[in-house]
Amino acid sequence: MNDNTAVISEIKRLLGDRQRLAYVRSFGCQLNVSDGEKIKGLLRKMGFGFTDDESEADLIMLNTCAVRENAEDRVFGIVGSMKKLKEQRPELMIGIAGCMTAQSHIAEKIKKSYPQVDFVLGTSAINGLPKLLLECLRGARFSADIAEYDDFSATAEQVRESTFKASVPIMFGCNNFCTYCIVPYVRGRERSRRPEDIISEVEGLVRDGYKEIMLLGQNVNSYGNDLGGEMSFPKLLRRLNEIEGDFWIRFMSSHPKDASAGLIDAIFDCEKVAKHLHLPVQSGSDDVLRRMNRRYTAEKYFGIVDEIRRRDPDFSLTTDIIVGFPDETNEDFEATLDIMERVRYDNIYSFIYSKRTGTKAAEMPDGVPEEEKGQRMRRLLALQRDISTEHYKRFIGKRMRVLADDVSKKREGFLAGKSSEFIIVEFEGDSSLIGQFVEVEVTGAMNWAVTGEIVK
Ligand code: SF4
Predict the structure, then answer these.
(1) Residue of 172, 181, 293 with the most ligand 1 atoms within 8 Å of its CB, for mutation
(2) Atom of ligand 1 lying closest to residue 294 CA
(3) Which atom of ligand 1 is nearest to the CA of 219?
(4) Which of 298, 365, 390, 393 is nearest to 337 (CA)?
(5) Domains of the chain, each with CATH number or no CATH
(6) Terminal CA-CA length for the chain
(7) Which residue ranges have their beta carbon within 6 Å of ligand 1?
């Protein structure tokens, strides 16, 4: 536990009466966005307000993502452009947080080449933020904290971006070492939060009127493995399902190698768990899966899908796919298309493989030309468009429970929301419904959404 009370009082004293503003920008995945909310929570405790305009900020914090090298380059570009701001206003404080900083060579590079940056904060060291800010206010040229505290108390301090959808990290880190992924190197090994902390956080959110709880972890299916058998992810779902209130539970990500029968039972038994599973397959080729160190085969993956579809043929599945993994052959790629045809995903999130320094895959020879990878990606996207167009028609004439999210960007007078199945639903409605559950009868289907009319 890192008690910041004295440090925060001293910061408030040094900052004085004028309202200070912070600009906090998070890149990357939902876990990182959740960390950004924690950073904001701590800043609010220190007396900061928030702005979306960096030119009026007293503090700029970039909460970075390391998953792709071009994402890192983009952050370095933004930091470079802040040199001018710092020259104009030397009292401006600039901090870099997030996964990029967890790589010691990056922290060194920032220190050496970007003197406009005042401090660097690692992903497991968010509670160290007040101390770094204090050092900065006292005139330190550069400070860094990339220690691993294993301290999750900062979770309670979040400034949430939404009033009806909340992310709740249930674990941190990853033990899997997929060969293309940097996460285990920047977020450390798996650490599960205590179930009672998660349960009381969710109870509080439901009391505050939140309608969607998104449980987050790099691999939620191994939640509890470090808690001595006291709790597992299916057990946690069942326990959260008992909380009284009108809300639904989503979760991600779910590694297929750990997707157990117990998980499938819990999804079908718990009425508050959304009827959708995001199950990242990455490739349909056993050889590629082996070289990715995914530790399942296409057949094992089909086993999970078949069991789900046996219970509910309409159940919604989505996935992640990497196209053009090093030395992916045409046959490998065809196997991925086959898996898409067989599973019939409602949606896919696909990426062309990009080399990530520091991972094993970055050392693998790769004879596939970029142009070929681009062509494969276009074929994959075209196939998914056809599947979605056809597959979404199964909802026509059915009723869906939808959480109204926002006004439609495409049609005036329409709202857009997501159904329990994680399908985008557009329907006519008043903006006062945003943040509410509505019952929609589906009347039409496109390849990216369905349309319908409110019936309740
Ligand atoms: S399961 Fe694999 S892809 Fe996911 S975070 Fe862990 S190492 Fe990365």
Answers:
(1) 181
(2) 2
(3) 1
(4) 298
(5) 5-145 (3.40.50.12160), 162-274 (3.30.750.210), 278-394 (3.30.750.200), 396-454 (2.40.50.140)
(6) 48
(7) 174, 176-178, 181, 183-184, 218-219, 255
- Phi, psi angles (nearest 5°) of residue 9: -60, -45
Segment 52-90, tens digit of pLDDT: 999 999 999 999 988 887 788 889 999 999 999 999 999
Say what the pTM is.
0.90
Residues in the chain: 456
Nearest CA among 67, 70, 80 for reference residue 32: 67
* Cα 402 to Cα 182, 216, 452, distances in angstroms: 35, 21, 11
pLDDT at 148: 63
